[in-house]
Amino acid sequence: MSKEKLFMQAINEALDQAMEKDEDVILLGEDIAGGANVKHLEEKNEDSWGGTMGITRGLMPKYGRERVIDTPISEMGYMGAAVGMAVTGLRPVPELMFNDFIGFALDSILGQGSKMRYMFGGKATVPMTVRTMHGAGASAAAQHSGSYYGMLGSIPGVKVVVPATPYDAKGLMLSAIEDNNLVMFFEDKTLYGTKGDVPDEYYTIPIGEAAIKRGGEDLTIVTIGKMLFVGLEVAEILEKDNVSVEVIDLRTVAPWDQETVIESVKKTGRLIVIDEANPHNNTATDIASVVSDRAFDYLDGPIKCVCAPNTPVPFAANLEKLYIPNADKVLREAAEIIDDLKA
Amino acid sequence: MSGKAQRMPESVSKVETSFKELVDLEVRTATDTAVKNLTSDKAKDMYKNMEDIRNFEENAKRYFAAGEIPGFVHLYAGEEAIATGVCAHLTDEDYITSTHRGHGHCVAKGGDLKGMMAEIFGKATGLGKGKGGSMHIADIDKGILGANGMVGGGFGIATGAAIRNKYKKSDRVVVCFFGDGAANEGVFHECLNMASIWKLPIVFVNENNFFAEATPQWYSSASNTIAERAVAYNMPGVRVNGKDVAGVYETAGEAIERARKGEGPTLIECVTYRNHGHFEGDEQTYKADFGEEKEWADVDPLNVFREYAIENGLVTEEELDKLREESIKDVEEAVKFAQESPEPEPEALYEDVFAD
User: Fold this and answer.
1) Which helix (H) or strand (E) element contains residue B163?
2) What pLDDT shows up at residue B17?
3) Judgement on whether residues A155 and A272 belong to the same structural domain of the protein
């Protein structure tokens, strides 16, 4: 059965079902339950925050503090511990509250977890899913709003997932937890309140498969995370000019689905990538590079990347709005490559 | 800890007059009862193990100098008593995390000499199929969660393994080896704190060899000892003579027993000396090759144990000599195995990035 659910509920439900299914799935992070050792909460077996955004609410009362571990504010320590838990047979799901805190936790991912299997001759397995929150648009300013999935996705041994819809969020979360590798799961904080149909039952969506969210013939728009909605908006607008846009939600940033993107570009001959990350060395530039290499002869114009500017995320609401890629910016770039179609 | 301990003088020129004082701060050696807990067989195993480490390292040095071993090599020779004394209490079910100076820990935890030697030669038969090298020797089946190229890289992994043991209600313990340099990484503090609040079955074994690369411990540490930092994390902190394997064995035994019983973590500082450079090729101009520092450097833990074991009637000199010969032979065979092993196939470059 399927019901309309919030993006945040979809994630909570996925975590719940993964924990139900496998007792080795253990959550850890800062305030993911909250209120540890607080007497009045303990007496009633209640959590407090259930995560800073309430995503993990209710899981501690159901599974206990052994499986929903509130950590001290020690990102390097507990992310390293997650690697140790994974390599000794558990299936930890650590939460890095904001992806901007990655500096503290990075060695566990870059130096340890991602490399163990390779360095140890294939004899180590590191099944862990790092949940983290990203994205601008919540006036959270420069240290709580970045989008670093591309940066993390450039590390060999790391898979990176960025869902845009509640349905994808649940299915990809369950895949991530089942996966025997280090998966980084990015949740856009501005999507938590969005709604969509989500089946009640356990289901998975393969990591590494993009989704064609709208079919089209003239222009391919590849999006990451909430940029899907910018892509869909642009497609609606261009439809009025008889330009048919195919919108591909990448869903997985590493490894990204080259076949789906290349096939689409071979059909349309035009490509725009919308990526909320800063503009250099990001997923968009990687896609542009691969497509120009693999499908150069099919291109009818330059590949356009619409990204955030090369600045930190500003606080002032008007500036933050300017920072995030939007339909106007995409349409300006599109105009250059679809001119002949409109004529 | 005593408040009487004096800081080392800032001037390196004064080290010769006070190095011994630094070594001797609150340091434990084997008690009279230690020997009662040492059987003759255990003593032989431990001596053989120390010889294996020593011979492994001497060969690593030799073949690195000969150009057969590539990369960086950080030698453990001189610190054998620590790895041996601690790991003598562990089984394959227990876990260790090691360091960039990790050959000794891996040998002591049962790492296969041939697989280890082949690994540092970069051969396909190595424990890591030649893709890890000296700083990344691991054998998960033996509970060796890896040497580590990151100073302090083992703290988190060890803490996580201990969380696993506690969650599984297992009596397995974890030993986290680390140097005096790693004690100044933030993650040291994070993990000691977490291990203590959660009463994890883990022993943090510090090897204070007085040098973090080219920087002395008496310069880089605000506390006189590493052990006294345990106070901040509400766990026992013990300082033991790291060249006295019987003392290390005794002290580690107490801490491991405590961990197995669910009584929480312990910090042990083993006072030793880094007889070799940070890496092979290091000219070590920062060391005092005279006075008390030299005297401490020259204390050989193997000789210390030989005397102790003979004196206490655990083994005879002939038996020890025989073990030494056996060890030399075992390591020679490991070298031969490594030399004769093939390089990894080219396709190995792409393998084992991801698990299925």
Assistant:
1) helix B154-167
2) 47
3) no
Q: At what angle do helices B113-120 and B317-340 cross, to 10 degrees?
A: 50
- Residue B75 phi/psi, 5-degree rounding, is -90, 145
Within-domain flag for B24: no
Of the candidates A74, A87, A90, the beta carbon closest to that of B157 is on A87
Q: How far is A110 from chain B (nearest CA, A)?
A: 11
How many interface pairs between A and B have CB atoms less than 8 angstroms apart? 150
- 3-class secondary-structure state, position A62: helix
CATH code of residue A310: 3.40.50.920
pLDDT at A343: 53
Judge whether B159 is closer than 8 Å to chain A, CB to CB. yes
Of the three residues A169, A199, A229, the one that is the final residue of a domain is A199
pLDDT at res. B21? 86
Q: In Å, how far is A295's CA from the nearest CA of chain B?
A: 25
A122, B352: Cβ pair inside 8 Å?
A: yes
B311 CB within 8 Å of a chain A CB: no
Using CA atoms, how far apart are residues B157 and B163, in angstroms rounded to an integer?
10
Tell me the residue range of the domain where A297 lies: 211-337
State phi, psi for B11 to the nearest 5 degrees. Answer: -80, 125
- State whether A126 and A49 are in the same domain: yes
- Closest alpha carbon within chain A to B356: A180
Query: Is there a domain that residue A78 lies in?
Result: yes
From A189's Cα to the closest Cα of chain B, the distance in A is 28
In a domain, A206, yes or no: no
Looking at every residue in chain A, the average pLDDT score rounds to: 97
Q: Percent of chain A beyond pLDDT 70? A: 99
